[in-house]
Amino acid sequence: MEIKVIELKDDMARIAFIGEGHTYMNALVDEILKNPDVDVANYSSEFHFTDPVLLVTTKGGKDPVDAIRNAAVAISDNCAGFIETLNNS
After folding, report:
1. What burial class does residue 22 get, using C-beta atoms within 10 Å of its C-beta: 0-12 exposed, 13-18 middle, 19+ buried?
2. Average pLDDT by consecutive 10-residue portion of the chain (89 residues)?
């Protein structure tokens, strides 16, 4: 996965996800919003064929990149658990 950091501050990050679609971005935003330190998490695509841009803002100066990273790890862990369950069926 390729990303491009557009803007990064202590409590805000805007990151483009090159080539990603709505499926991953929706899952990522949903997972990020589970974090109580996150104020805003959403993404937008200017046009249907453009790369989505994720916006995350946090409360209390918490690092938005940590929130994004933790959400991505949670998604990966959920997928690994799902695959393991399927393999054991």
Report:
1. exposed
2. 95 96 95 98 90 97 96 93 87
